[in-house]
Specification:
globular; 153 residues; single chain; 5 helices; mainly alpha; 0% strand
């Protein structure tokens, strides 16, 4: 497997990070009982924070390498559907933990002014539903992002 070009990486991350940030922001608001704030500027701020964090996660971690190596631990072809499903397990977990913790901290501690450990409980309360939602979003948008990025080559 050859290293992808910068153009490929940029397009792939744009196509993946925007839906992932939107899903985490909308899902987080709904799952935390704040669905009434969906039509407020808080949603735009959360999507922006989520997008920036997703870009940082993509820059700091070898996402493609993890997605290709993890299925091989279970003797699965990373390019097969079962390989994609298994390969996304650690990737989505990584995104949900990092982005979820930061977004919960910002929303609960900074914006809502709650006491210090409150954001951890908010994170724990929304982690599983956000994980499932983001896993579904990733499975839908990975092929779209790959096609869009490949079209730039």
């Amino acid at each position: 497997m050859e290293k992808p070009s910068l153009k490929f990486v940029v397009v792939f991350n744009l196509v993946m990070n925007i839906p992932m940030a939107a899903a985490m922001s909308i899902g987080g608001m709904i799952f935390s009982g704040n669905a009434s704030k969906l039509l407020t500027p808080a949603l735009a701020v959360n999507i922006l924070i989520g997008f920036v964090l997703a870009c940082i996660v993509n820059a700091l971690f070898p996402i493609q390498g993890i997605a290709m190596k993890f299925p091989t631990l279970f003797k699965l072809d990373p390019e097969s559907l079962p390989g994609h499903l298994v390969g996304n397990i650690p990737i989505v977990a990584l995104f949900c933990v990092i982005i979820g913790l930061v977004m919960n901290f910002v929303n609960v501690q900074i914006f809502a002014g709650a006491k210090a450990p409150a954001f951890l409980f908010a994170f724990l309360g929304t982690f599983i539903p956000c994980y499932v939602l983001c896993f579904i979003v990733a499975m839908i948008f990975i092929p779209v992002a790959q096609k869009a990025a490949a079209a730039t080559m």
